[in-house]
Amino acid sequence: MDPSQKFYRFFQDHVAELQDLIDQLQSVASVAGERQEAIDHVLASISKLQHEVADAADFTPAYDRKQYSDAIKGLQEKLNETIAKVTPKSRFQFRRSSIQRHVDMGAPENDPRLHPGSLSRNALNHRDDEQLQQDTTESRDQVSELPRNNGRDYNAELAKPSTHFIRQPSFSAASSIGISKQADLHIILPSSAARATASGSLTELNRCIVDMSVPTAEGRPFPGLALRDVSHSLIIAGRVDGPVHITGVTDSILVVTARQVRIHECKNVDIYLHCTSHPIIEDCTGMRFAPLPQCYALEEDAERENQWDQVDDFKWLKAGQSPNWTTLSAAEVVDETIWTKVVPGQPGSSVGETLKKVGIPRH
């Protein structure tokens, strides 16, 4: 099937699904924040669909993009009207700014192919490969200060001394997962964190093990994830529907399922990956890639192409293989039993002992 036809079918399916979700909002209970959570999910899904339209601009005709733009605008208006019906005005006032500004992708002045650095593309949060450096800077700004969640400072709680080798912060009172400025901790997020995956950030971690696989598999995947300034650590990032931005990671192992992976300024990092697009590296050395371990894969992953070894190095313009990355051989990958028996934690095992068993630091 032609790519434009495939996208047309994909778009129509998602619009129909979102229309159904909006129609169901009136029947969702308003207690315990369930209705607001459903609204947030629809908002995030509309935003994601906008990104998909922008990503498809290179192979979809202008007429189709105009149709897509009108359909998204219709979803936004329908959501506004539904929220006005189900929410008492005295307690809630919906602000249009919570949905990204609508951009007509069918209009020539907004065509990202004709204006690669245009404001229309920025409004859709869509960046070309040429804008990766700007993208890295923006990612740094977004995750530099992690907010407290509903009055609870989870990072302060994690930093308190404890006799337990493994920490399991619930994040049950949180809307997002942000772990920052930690060292020598083994953190496993339980299923109670499944409702806190509206966004994710891991920053300034040293000699840590962080496992986010359970909440992102049982709940919703992250729409996006940022990892910055992580060293000598094992990060099982879980599932991400959108992009993963990895910056300043050294001497570590990462495990992730994502739509896009962009890696900047990293050194000596092994990445076990399921990615539906080409991973991108820039200003990196000693990068090694391997497919996702079986214990972290879901049935749906088998239906999607995994381009884990189709890495693009934006700083290697010469012909031939970039020296900055390679693939792990069968003898070099971490054994499946290590993932299933050692990484979840063993009685009496320290963080350092567990890291050593997975190969951190690299020999």
From TrEMBL:
Residues 190-316 form the C-CAP/cofactor C-like domain. The keyword Cytoplasm applies. It is found in: Cytoplasm. Its main location: cytoplasm. SMART domains: CARP. Belongs to the TBCC family. This is Tubulin binding cofactor C. It comes from Moelleriella libera RCEF 2490.
